[in-house]
Design brief:
Belongs to the UPF0047 family. 26% of the residues lie in helices and 38% in strands. The chain is α+β, with helices and mostly antiparallel strands.
């Protein structure tokens, strides 16, 4: 079954920990072994796994991407959000996370982050659980 998470962002660039929402889907579907596939169907938003124990890491990632790909530049894209497209390409739009004993297999400090680069907006994350 395909699930859709709705993510409401509040700023132009933002990392939002969606791990709790993904865990709820796994619990509701009672998947004990398998894989969780996550896909962001947007060209200016992505998804990544990183540390969620210290919220300053998410801001450091945003700041680092801004230094690498500043909002203002000699871009040809006319909508004014070329940097968001580039950041999304760097971060990526999908993830696979194993599920063992009904739990996401993540490191001690890891969480799943929705990455907004052209907000604020209402976004979607598609979640497909594969049992087995």
């Amino acid at each position: 079954m395909l699930h859709t998470l709705t993510v409401n962002t509040t700023t132009r660039s933002q990392l939002i920990d969606i791990t709790p929402q993904v865990k709820k889907i796994i619990q509701a579907e009672k998947i004990s072994e398998g894989c969780c596939y996550l896909f962001v169907p947007h060209t200016t938003a992505g998804i990544t796994i990183n540390e969620h124990a210290d919220p300053s890491v998410a801001q450091d990632i945003i700041n680092g991407l801004e230094r690498l790909v500043p909002r203002e530049g000699s871009y040809r894209h006319l909508e004014g959000n070329a940097d968001a497209h580039i950041k999304t390409s760097l971060v990526g739009s999908s993830l696979f996370v194993p599920i063992v004993d009904g739990q996401l297999v993540l490191g001690t400090w890891q969480g799943i982050f929705f990455c907004e680069f052209d907000g604020p907006r209402q976004r979607k994350v598609l979640v497909k659980l594969i049992s087995g």
